[in-house]
Amino acid sequence: MIGLMTLTLREPRRAFARLRGLALPLSARWGLVVMAAAASAVLSFLGTLLIPVPADAPADVLHVLSVTPWAMAATQVASAALAAYLLAEVGRVFRGTGGFADALLAVGWIETMMVAFQALQLATMLVLPPLAGLIGIGSLVLATVLVVLFTMELHGFRNPLLVVLGIMGTVMVTGFMLSILAATLGLLPEVPV
Predict the structure, then answer these.
(1) What domain range is 95 assigned to?
(2) How does pLDDT run across 120-145, given as a tens digit for each residue?
């Protein structure tokens, strides 16, 4: 796994092609997503134990989820499933060739890479806190690059700019639809006027 992670950092498209070449069954791809979500939830929970949030700080969704690892893991698995579905289906709308199983593998592997960076960030936070923030920023940049390159590899796309625009459009439309759904179900807090 370390070798594949190193290859992902050096040559992401080749690493994803190698992952696809393993021909993992769908159950193993789901297992990758669930393992990554569970590991991330545990690391988030450890982070709240090691670096507690002050009692008078306003509660946000991420903090609430991080102190309840089951909810965090379930949310991450659901998000990964939605991301894989959108990655496959929106890509096909633009004549891509990838399917859901490979999209799930892409999302699961990106999550696995992020868990490795999350563990590094947590360890660094204990020793050298300013560097931990830079690792966090680096992991966000890496995740963005991996999503674009894996999407290109998955669907056979050649133009990274069009892929970026497609991803941004999909994120905006999906966010808008989810916010309408949340408002309809009464899940959004009321904003004081």
Answers:
(1) 2-160
(2) 999 998 898 889 889 999 999 999 99
